[in-house]
Amino acid sequence: MGLRATEAATGNGGGMRSLPDFLGRKSKYVRMDDVLPDEQGDGGGGGGVVRVRGGGGSGRYVFACSVFASLNHVLLGYDVGVMSGCIIFIQKDLHISEVQQEVLVGCLSFISLLGSLAAGRTSDAVGRKWTIGLAAAVFQAGAAVMTLAPSFAVLMMGRLLAGIGIGIGIMVAPVYISEITPATLRGSYASFPEIFISLGILLGYVSNLAFSGLPDHINWRVMLAAGIVPSISVAFVLLVIPESPRWLVMQGRAAEARAVLLKVTDGEDEAQERLAEIEEAARVTATGNGKAVWRELLRPSPVIRRMLVTGIGVQLFQQITGIDALVYYSPTIFRDAGITTESQLLAATVGVGLSKTVFIVIAIVLVDRVGRKPLLYVSTAGITACLAALAASLSLLAHGALPRAAAIGAAILTVCGFVAFFSVGIGPINMVLSSEIYPLRLRAQAVALGFAVNRLTSGAVAMSFLSICGAVSVAGAFAAFAAISALSVVFVHVFVPETSGKSLEQIESLFGAGAGAGEVELGDAEHLVQGKEMS
């Protein structure tokens, strides 16, 4: 018993689907919760054709809001990408040591975790929308200070501000997107921040290559100054996007929440239904407060503990396998493989950024069609294989068992493969899971805690990578990353449930105690209708 998914009306008739509809469409199933009654369709004579939530004009509006909310992630990506080239010229201009290089690169992640933690409270106090604006303003200030820095100390002060801004931005966007998006689109749209990070990394690499010909005391400053441009666009974003309806309900502003829901749904009935669901979930928090939330997170019940293990574990494994070390220090890796000139090194990094961006687009298309868990399996297994191959090729080159040309080719292939597998799975899906598995009363703080772990791990890897390479070689460092990555495959199998197509409130049932969790998930399958033909 099911419905013909290809005939579900989405505002495009029988013709070509729009990009938002294409990204949100699933190949086999739609949720019964997300099917609108026939009388809400195009009026009579539908012949059994039904409409799916998120189609038509509301789908395009949600798509636009998700894109705009993700723009801050360009800042993080740009900073990561541009610093890989800037550090070469900063070292020449300011004569900093290797330890200072590690501190300059790695401190961003440590500082951004402070922003992530602050963003949880800030987004609950002033709203998701204005927290997005705050993140851009703080980053702009930091980028300006770094651009004009006359010394390493002043450069670090700017890095401090930029890191806080990035930390705020990377926490709030996934929460905002998950709270305005229907379940059938949430996985794809919540992946947008990762594609903007990848785009930012690519832009940073291109900036390195474009401005590397300038004098050493100017080029790195121009590279950093260019990062201010994306943050300026956020001022326009604040004029366009609405506040999160879930946050508005938590503030007792149900009428405003309903007005927002009318924009992001396909009719008054659906808007009223979603408002009722949000109000029901918000009642749990009516007598709570910030301190109570943190007490519940620090002394969790078994169900909340399982949520935290899943959410924080995915955030940890995303970074501990070395993605930021590879992106920040890709010139070092390629130099160790045999590439010598600065222009060739920077050109190779552009290829890495392009690979990362292309495959994140593929992930966005697949995340709601294939599901979260299958993509995580492919991603973690592929990362493990690429890391092992990279470590082996660098080791063989060091022992003279591999020709230089072959080593360069293997390094470029495995590094691009690493970022491709990362981008098609654990890169974007960690954001999706983090923003959808927690109950409303804990969501902002729990997501902030997960991002804090993510940034702490990223900083530890980035700040220690050069020292580890000096102690055990670049090949040894990536062999260790490969071993850790193998553990991530096991983690996904044991701890990560499939959340695709379920409402935020229904996902909570997947973490029920003991064997009941499996029974609940099986029962939830009764709300799925197979995309064949209604019988």
UniProtKB/TrEMBL annotation:
GO terms for cellular component: membrane. The keyword Transmembrane applies. It is found in: Membrane. Residues 65-500 form the Major facilitator superfamily (MFS) profile domain. It holds the Pfam family Sugar_tr. The chain crosses the membrane at residues 132-154, 160-177, 189-206, 218-241, 307-329, 345-367, 374-399, 405-426, 446-468, 474-496. Its main location: membrane. It comes from the Eukaryota. PROSITE patterns: MFS, SUGAR_TRANSPORT_1, SUGAR_TRANSPORT_2. GO terms for molecular function: symporter activity. InterPro entries: MFS_dom (IPR020846), MFS_sugar_transport-like (IPR005828), MFS_trans_sf (IPR036259), Myo-inositol_Transporter (IPR050814), Sugar/inositol_transpt (IPR003663), Sugar_transporter_CS (IPR005829). It is a multi-pass membrane protein. Keywords: Membrane, Sugar transport, Symport, Transmembrane, Transmembrane helix, Transport. Belongs to the major facilitator superfamily. Sugar transporter (TC 2.A.1.1) family. PANTHER family: PROTON MYO-INOSITOL COTRANSPORTER (PTHR48020), SUGAR TRANSPORTER (PTHR48020:SF49). This is Major facilitator superfamily (MFS) profile domain-containing protein. It comes from Oryza sativa subsp. indica.
